[in-house]
Amino acid sequence: MSETLSTRDRLIANAARLFQERGYHGVGVAEILAASSAPKGSLYYHFPNGKADLALAAADWASVQLLHILDDAFADARDFQDGITTLCFKLAKLFDLSDHWRTCPISSILFEAPENVMFRDKTRTIFDDWIAAVAAKGREHGLEKSHADQLAEAIWITLQGAWNLARARKSADPIRKIPGLVFGA
Amino acid sequence: MSETLSTRDRLIANAARLFQERGYHGVGVAEILAASSAPKGSLYYHFPNGKADLALAAADWASVQLLHILDDAFADARDFQDGITTLCFKLAKLFDLSDHWRTCPISSILFEAPENVMFRDKTRTIFDDWIAAVAAKGREHGLEKSHADQLAEAIWITLQGAWNLARARKSADPIRKIPGLVFGA
Amino acid sequence: MSETLSTRDRLIANAARLFQERGYHGVGVAEILAASSAPKGSLYYHFPNGKADLALAAADWASVQLLHILDDAFADARDFQDGITTLCFKLAKLFDLSDHWRTCPISSILFEAPENVMFRDKTRTIFDDWIAAVAAKGREHGLEKSHADQLAEAIWITLQGAWNLARARKSADPIRKIPGLVFGA
Amino acid sequence: MSETLSTRDRLIANAARLFQERGYHGVGVAEILAASSAPKGSLYYHFPNGKADLALAAADWASVQLLHILDDAFADARDFQDGITTLCFKLAKLFDLSDHWRTCPISSILFEAPENVMFRDKTRTIFDDWIAAVAAKGREHGLEKSHADQLAEAIWITLQGAWNLARARKSADPIRKIPGLVFGA
DNA sequence: CATGAATGAGCGTTCATTCAT
DNA sequence: AATGAATGAACGCTCATTCAT
C-alpha cells in the first residue's frame, strides 16, 4: 500500500486485504503490523480495543470501496441491468486478479470473527446499506421502489452465493452469470 | 454427542459443529477434544495429519448430512419445486435452532482453512456433488437434463447467499424465500 | 536392513544407526519402529524398559561391529602401525559414506542419553574393552604390555577427537591422519 | 546465574550450561526459561527463530569463554608447553567441578542439534577459531607457523578425545595427561 | 504521538509408554 | 509371541495484549 497513507490508514487497508484472504482468525496482528510497516505498539494507539476494533474499521473501509465500485459501474449505465452487468464484470475481474480467492470482504472479515453482537450488527448494517444503494440505482433508472428493493436483495444474495461457488471452482464464471440469473436468461 | 459413537466419530461430529460455528481457525483442537471427551493424543492416532485431516473428515461428514436432508425433503415431494421448498424449510428450521448462526458447513469449514489446494479441491467436489444430487432430483421429477443442471446450480448459489444474509439478519426468512427467487414469484 | 533379521535385531540395528546420526533424544521410538517395519507395541515386548533398554542393546551391537572392523584391519597386518593405519582408513571410508556425519556410535548413543549411571558405566566398559582389544593387537605384534596399553589409549583418544573434527569439517582427513599423530610423523 | 545479567544474557548462559549437560534435544525450552526466571514468550522476542537461534548464541558465548580460559592460561606462561599444561589443568578442574560430566560445550551444543547446515558450519568456524588461537599462542612463544598449526590441531583433537574418555571414566586424568601425549612423554 | 520490550495463556503437535487382546 | 489403539504430559512455538518510556 502507498507510503503516503497514514499509519492508521495503512493498518486498515492491509487488515482488510489480509482478513479477506484468510479470515479474522487466520491473520495475526503481527502480520498486519509488518505489512503496514507499523511498529508493534502502534496498533493499540490507533485502535484501543485491538484486533476487533481494527476489523470493524477494515469492514467499514471495504464497504466504502464496494460502494465506489457500484458507483463506477453505474456511471455510464444505459439502464439498471446494464449497470449491474458492468458491476458483476468489475467484481469478476477483481476476483480473477486475486488468484480466484478474494470474495466478499464483509463476510470474510465479520463472519469469521468471534460471535460478537457488534460484529453481527455491523455486518447487517453494511449488507443493508449496500442493498439500499443498489435499490437506489434501480429507482434512478425508473424502477418502482418495491421492485427495486426486491431486485437489489436478490442481486446481493446471488452475488454472495456466486462468490462462494467461484472460489470453490477457481473461476469467475459464476459472478459473470449473475445478471442472467437475476434478470432471466 | 451420543456416547455410543466411537471416539473417531465423536471427534468428527463435534469438529463439524464447532467449525461450522466459528471456522477452522476459530476453534482449537483442545476444545474439540474436550467436547468429544477424548484425550489429547487420540486426535493424532485417528487423524495422523492432525487438525487439517479432521477438518477434511468433518467436511465429508457434513456433506453426507446435507445429502440426507435433501433425500428426506424429496421423500414425499409432489414435484421438484415442492421438494426444494421442503428442503429450504428444513434448512431454515435448522438455522433457527442454531441461534441463527450455523450456515453452510462446507463453506464454514473449508474456506477458513489455510489456503491449501486440498481444501479448495474438496470444497469444489462437495459443492459439485450436491449440485449434481439436486439436478438428479430434478430429472426424477421430469426435468430435462440441461434445465435441471441450471436450476440446481442456481439453487445452490441462492442458498449460499441466503445463508449469508440470514446470518447477518438473524432471520431464516431469506432461506425460506429461496423458492420464490428461483422459480419466480 | 535385511528382512531376514528378527524383529529384535532389526530394531537394534536401526536404532544404532539412527542414534548414531541424531543422538538418543534426537530419534523417536516411532521412527525406529517404522524403519524396522515393526508394530507399535513390539518394542516393549523385546525391550521391557523401552527406549533406554534398546539404546543399551544398540550400543553393545555397535561395539561388536567396531571390534569386527578392528579384527578385519589386523587380518593381514605386517605390524601394529600397519594394522592401525588400515583401521583408520576403514573408519574414514565409513565416515565418507555416511555424508561425513556418523562418528563414534558409542559416544553418539550413550553420551546423549539421560545422565544415567547405567549409561555411563556401559560407555566406560565398551571404551575400555575396545582399548584393551587394540592393546592386545599390539602385544600380538611384539609390543610390551605397558607400551601397548599406552598406545591403545592414545589411539582411542585421538580417534574420538579426530571424529569430532572430521564431522565439523565434513572431511575424513583428520581420521586418516591419526597414525601420523600417534606414531610420529 | 547472576540476576544482574539481562534476560537475554541469562537465557544464553543457562542454555549453554544445560545444553552442555544434556544436549540440544535433551533440554526443553521450558527448563531454560525456568532456570533463567524468564517468561515463556520472552525467548521468542530475543531469539525470533527460537531454540535453534538460542543454541547458536549459546555456542558463540561458550566459544568466547573457552578463548578466555586460553588467554588466562597463557598469561604467565614460560613457554608454549607450559601454557598448554596450565590450560589442561584449568579444563580438568572445571570438569571435576561439574560432576565429571561437562565436556566440550561446542560439541555438546551443536553436534546434537538437528542436522542443519548452519549448525555444522558454526561448529567448524568455532573449532577453527580455537585452533587458530592456540597456534597464535605457539607463534608468540617462538614456534614456526607450520609447526604451531600442526601442534594446535593435535592439541584440539586430543582435548576432544580426552574429554570423551574423561566423561566415560568419571576422571579428569585423561585431560591432565594431554601435554604428555602431545609433547612426548 | 509513538514505540518496542515484555508477557503468559494457549496453539497444534510429538512423545515414550500402557494395555486389552 | 505379538499387536495397534489409546494416553496425557511435554514439546517448541504463536498469540493478542500491556506497559514503561
TrEMBL record, chains A, B, C, D:
Residue ranges of domain HTH tetR-type in the record: 5-65
Pfam families cross-referenced by the UniProt entry: TetR_C_13_2, TetR_N
PROSITE patterns: HTH_TETR_2
DNA-binding region(s) in UniProt: 28-47
Domain of life: Bacteria
UniProt-recorded Gene Ontology molecular function terms: DNA binding
Keywords, comma-separated and alphabetical: DNA-binding, Transcription, Transcription regulation
Keyword Acetylation: no
Name by which UniProt lists this protein: TetR family transcriptional regulator
